[in-house]
Design brief:
Radius of gyration: 29 Å
Order of helices and strands: HHHHHEHEEHEEHEE
CATH class of the largest domain: Alpha Beta
Strand order of the largest sheet: 2-4-5-7-6
Number of domains: 3
Largest sheet: 5 strands, mixed
Number of strands: 7
CATH superfamily of the largest domain: Histidine kinase-like ATPase, C-terminal domain
Structural class: alpha+beta
CATH architecture of the largest domain: 2-Layer Sandwich
Distance between the termini: 36 Å
Shape: extended
Strand content: 5-15%
């Protein structure tokens, strides 16, 4: 992903070099305008030949094209400068997020020789936790790159979404228990047959549950409700956390976008988790939407996926 971002920066720099030709275009345009005026003055004094008339017409068309090119170059320069600034921010953010877990890992590794043997399991757990954090960041970046380049692939089969929900809840429960967050689930009695990639469906639910836990204060609550109606399954994950402002709500699924009240809350993030969720859900033929009444009033993320119409009982 970093290599891809570096390439985009180089491409943007090339665009900026190209836009420097704008001054030359403007100067050429001024010379053509002068030539056009002289041609008009000459036309008043004598009848132009057919060749001269054609030359005059060609000059007018060239003048129009150069004016358009000059204006386009100016717009290109502004767009390129904005893109360059955005890419610089993204690179700084990625470097910061990948560097953060390295600090505790380095400190622990440096002191392992002096750590009592009874402390080693705790040190090991801390290192493993930081490595998992880095792995999630890298995987999210890779998924984002795959989606943008059309290399996103699913290994689909008919699966029971209820079972996948149970597995995702089991994985997220330790983090919620550690922060005293109450998690409740309401699931249908039967199966919810989905034609999808089991690993990716688990990733969708894990990202949403992890997101809810991350932005819910200690002692808060998270609920998961799954229902089926009209050939669709709807999974709603609601929390009573920090909420989403009205300004940020329309853009929460865009890459590297974070609400102002989320920045730095319970640890920083890259702002790509929900983008990956959207790409995965849409790849399964579904939709995901976000709801919130505003800052401090919690949020709700709703995923809708198509059910398999005819299937036999699933066994896993």
């Amino acid at each position: 992903m970093l290599a891809a971002l570096h390439k985009e920066l180089n491409d943007t720099n090339s665009q900026l070099v190209d836009s420097q030709q704008m001054e030359q275009l403007i100067e050429a345009n001024q010379q053509l305008v002068l030539a056009t005026l002289l041609a008009q003055s000459d036309a008043k004094r004598s009848q132009l030949t057919q060749a001269e008339q054609q030359l005059y017409q060609d000059m007018r068309e060239a003048n129009e094209q150069l004016v358009t090119a000059a204006l386009s170059a100016k717009d290109l320069q502004a767009s390129a400068e904005l893109a360059l600034e955005q890419q610089r921010k993204v690179l700084a953010l990625v470097a910061h997020e990948l560097r953060n877990p390295l600090t505790p890992i380095s400190m622990i590794a440096g002191g392992l020789g002096r750590v009592p043997s009874e402390e080693l399991p705790r040190m090991q757990a801390l290192i493993e936790g930081q490595v998992r954090h880095m792995s999630r960041l890298v995987e999210d970046l890779l998924d984002l790159a795959r989606a943008s380049t059309g290399k996103f692939r699913l290994k689909c089969c008919v699966v029971d979404l209820v079972q996948i929900i149970h597995e995702a809840v089991d994985l997220c429960s330790p983090a919620m228990i550690a922060r005293n967050i109450h998690l409740s689930t309401i699931l249908p009695d039967g199966e919810l047959a989905i034609n999808g990639d089991p690993m990716r469906l688990a990733q969708i639910l894990g990202n949403l549950l992890g997101n809810a836990a991350k932005y819910t204060p200690v002692g808060g609550s998270v609920s998961l409700l799954a229902t089926a109606e009209a050939g669709m399954v709807e999974v709603s994950i609601r929390d009573n956390g920090i909420g989403i402002t009205a300004q940020a709500l329309p853009f929460i699924f865009e890459p590297f976008v974070q609400d102002v009240n989320a920045v730095g809350f319970n640890g920083a993030g890259l702002g790509i988790g929900l983008t990956v969720v959207r790409e995965l859900v849409e790849a399964h033929g579904g939709t995901v939407t976000g709801k919130s009444e505003g800052s401090g009033k919690g949020s709700e993320l709703v995923v809708r996926l198509p059910l398999v119409k005819h299937h036999t009982s699933l066994g896993r």
